[in-house]
Amino acid sequence: MGKDEGSIKAVKKILLAITFLTRLPFPIPKSISPDDMGRTTPFFPMVGLLIGLILVVINYALSYIWAPYIVNVLLIISLIVITGGLHLDGLMDTCDGIFSGKDRERTLEIMHDSRVGAMGVLGAICIIVLKMVFLSAANPGSKMAALIAFPMLGRFSMVFAVSAFPYARTSPGLGSLFVEYAKKRYIFWAIVQVLVVTIPLLLWKAFPVIVIVVAFTWLLGKWLTNRLEGLTGDTYGAICEITETMSLALISAIDNVSSM
Questions:
Q1: CA 21 distance to own-chain centroid
Q2: pLDDT (tens digit, 9 = 90+) per residue, 126-173?
Q3: How far apart (Å, rounded) are the C-alpha atoms in residues 6 and 33?
Q4: Which helix (H) or strand (E) holds 32?
Q5: Closest to 79 (Cα-Cα) out of 142, 22, 137
Q6: 102 close to 113: Cβ distance less than 8 angstroms
Q7: SS percent in the chain: helix, strand, coil, step 5
Q8: How far, in Å, CA of 168 to CA of 30, rounded?
Q9: Domain ranges in the chain?
Q10: Which residue, 112, 85, 108, 110, is CA-closest to 96?
Q11: Rounded to whole angstroms, how far apart are CA atoms 13 and 19?
């Protein structure tokens, strides 16, 4: 395969990743094969970078109009709009299933149900509120870095989960295609993207944040796998949402500790 052809395929996969993970009006390639879609996984952090840059622009524009706490609320709402609530939907389904107290098979059935229960609603409310709180707690000088870093780290966690853990369902689902083509090296390429972007932004703070995110993602993925004998598309969304929130918590905590 020539260099130009490889570049074209990479661009195609990035576009597919963007159109899958967001509602941004990017052009969709005319011919899409399962192989093309399944191999978009290592480009997920690049989608997070794009989302983060959009949030930075929104923050910059709205900061001239409203107070920071209002801007932070609008930023989290903007994130939901940009992603179409895809990951939040997965979080709600996961909460409904995991906290139902039922056995594995019934838990998977509940997660597959399109209806949202009380635990799903409560889970979504908690995540949204925590994101707003932790974003507001971040040092103003670190806000731009946080806005770029947390969507990247959230999507890195999805790459980790897809590549490191088995798929729970026997029937095809939204996440099965990515697992089918996943390779362990995707984790390496994803973490390289995160390091290249976050180190210049967060400096030394990037290292503890990334180490904790990697460890936390493994622990969360392991816990869910023990519960469900694997992961699903819904749990990938839940892992993304929880990791995003934890990333903001870590950045704001480090800011506060280092300023003492």
A1: 9
A2: 999 999 999 999 988 899 999 999 999 999 999 999 999 999 887 766
A3: 16
A4: none
A5: 22
A6: no
A7: 80, 0, 20
A8: 31
A9: 48-258
A10: 110
A11: 10
